[in-house]
């Protein structure tokens, strides 16, 4: 088998790998290795496909802000359809949670995002099926958007090819060895070499690091379940927002004429082809019955997907402290699609040894606070990502 050489090899063709491959292809030849027959088969193809600047831990939500421009106005020729369409998001607070809602509103306003703080009764004008007795107030984020994830992924891959890069499917990385100044990679479909590797393997990032002979990093996958059912007949759901509670026990949104709901479960998982959990399906249905006037008669569709977190839930992006030619783009949690454009630019800047892009640095992102070498990511002594925190949406 011949060996193909490149300037950069990216491992994993989900949204993370495709986007950083696209960014790096401006600077050299990129090979993107994907173990499955199709890109986007795992987490990227299973998301709720929403972009909210009020979502996620501090640094991720800022990367979402820094990604907005790309999603709204992608480069010429990137896609034939809009990558984002208006959705709106509604965050519901119970008694005692108004302080949290106010803090979210302040944080959003500080980044220039539009917000509207309303009573639970007023929230009915956005989503008429809420049981308002369950909540006291709500934050409406009008600029929350649906993302066309397929078009986004396809756009990155199309542009990668146009710039001379290559996607290799069925290309599971089986060995990864550093020899001199070069990484040598073997897959069932060929061998590949490059001086720099980007680890964008989603739930499998720790496995890739182990193959490379690097120390354990605390970046681990958790399963989430999603369920789809028919809305009440005659209701015009298309304008309903993404609706969730501040306490993070559920969210639901219109999805291709139906309603998607998640009980926002977060169960530790091995990296795998995740499936919906039956107990979580039942919990999702119960949440709909408890907090809305809708009735779930039949589950039309359900799925599971992995979301990968570091203990602080923040990005894991940067050069490995043991081997600087091994660059991490990981820990996307529930922000990987919406914040992926800025995360990719950040990872590319580390791979190139360049400074952090100015717009991202201006939002308070530093090499240290996203580093794969920061204490909580390095610490394998028992500190695990916290389950069920405010950041568990996605
Ligand atoms: C139910 C649910 C709802 C979500 N909702 C949202 C949302 O609304 N908005 C949002 O932004 N995010 C959301 N997310 C999170 C989002 O889906 C992830 O953050 C994102 O898809 C992660 O992308 P990724 O490229 O890192 O991972 P993946 O898409 O999993 O890609 C990693 C790739 O690496 C490949 N790989 C693994 N090992 C190897 C190997 N040895 N060799 C070669 N390839 C390998 C895998 O096959 C895979 O294709 C949601 C997630 C779930 C599960």
Overall SS class: alpha/beta
Strand proportion, as a percent range, falls in: 25-35%
Instruction: List segments where confidence is low: pLDDT < 50 over at least 5 consecutive residues.
Output: 387-394
CATH superfamily of the largest domain: FAD/NAD(P)-binding domain
Euclidean distance between termini CA atoms: 42 Å
How many runs of DSSP E, i.e. beta strands? 22
Indicate the percent of residues in helices: 10-25%
Give the cofactors and ligands: flavin-adenine dinucleotide
The total number of structural domains is 2
CATH class of the largest domain: Alpha Beta
Structural account:
The chain is of the alpha/beta class and 394 residues long. It has 2 domains: 200 residues, FAD/NAD(P)-binding domain (3-Layer(bba) Sandwich); 138 residues, D-Amino Acid Oxidase, Chain A, domain 2, CATH 3.30.9.10. The protein is built from 10 helices and 22 strands. Strands 6, 7, 8, 15, 16, 17, 18, 19 and 20 form a 9-stranded mixed beta sheet that branches. Strand 17 and strand 18 form a beta hairpin. The relative contact order is 0.20. The C terminus is likely disordered. Flavin-adenine dinucleotide binds next to helix 1, strand 15 and strand 20.
């Amino acid at each position: 088998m011949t060996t193909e050489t490149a300037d950069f090899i990216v491992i994993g063709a989900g949204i993370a790998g495709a986007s950083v491959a696209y960014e790096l292809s401006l600077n050299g030849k990129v090979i993107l290795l994907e173990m499955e027959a199709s890109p986007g088969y795992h987490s990227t193809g299973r998301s709720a496909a929403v972009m909210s600047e009020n979502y996620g831990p501090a640094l991720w939500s800022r990367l979402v802000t820094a990604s907005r421009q790309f999603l709204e106005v992608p480069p010429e020729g990137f896609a034939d359809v809009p990558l984002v369409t208006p959705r709106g998001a509604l965050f519901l607070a119970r008694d005692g949670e108004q302080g949290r809602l106010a803090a979210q509103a302040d944080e959003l306003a500080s980044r220039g995002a539009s917000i509207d703080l309303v009573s639970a009764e007023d929230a009915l004008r956005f989503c008429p099926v809420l049981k308002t007795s369950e909540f006291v107030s709500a934050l409406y984020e009008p600029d929350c958007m649906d993302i066309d994830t397929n078009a986004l992924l396809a756009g990155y891959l199309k542009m990668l090819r146009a710039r001379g890069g290559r996607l290799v499917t069925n290309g599971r990385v089986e060995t990864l060895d550093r020899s001199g100044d070069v990484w040598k990679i073997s897959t069932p479909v060929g061998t590949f070499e490059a001086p720099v590797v980007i680890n964008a393997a989603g739930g499998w990032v720790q496995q890739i690091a182990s193959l490379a002979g690097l120390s354990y990093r605390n970046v681990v996958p958790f399963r989430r379940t999603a369920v789809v059912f028919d809305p009440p007949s005659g209701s015009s759901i298309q304008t309903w927002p993404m609706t969730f509670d501040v306490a993070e026990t559920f969210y639901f949104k219109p999805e291709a004429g139906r309603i998607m709901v998640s009980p926002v479960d977060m169960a530790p998982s091995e990296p795998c082809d995740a499936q919906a959990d039956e107990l979580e399906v039942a919990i999702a249905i119960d949440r709909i019955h408890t907090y809305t006037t809708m009735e779930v008669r039949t589950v039309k569709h359900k799925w599971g997907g992995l979301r990968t977190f570091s203990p602080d839930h923040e990005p894991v992006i940067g050069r490995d402290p043991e081997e600087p030619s091994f660059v991490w783009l990981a820990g996307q949690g529930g922000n990987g699609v919406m914040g992926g454009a800025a995360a990719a630019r950040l990872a590319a800047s580390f791979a190139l040894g360049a400074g952090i892009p100015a717009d991202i640095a201006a939002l308070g992102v530093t090499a240290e606070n996203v580093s794969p070498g920061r204490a909580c990511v390095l610490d394998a002594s028992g500190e695990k990502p916290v389950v069920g925190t405010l950041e568990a949406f996605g």
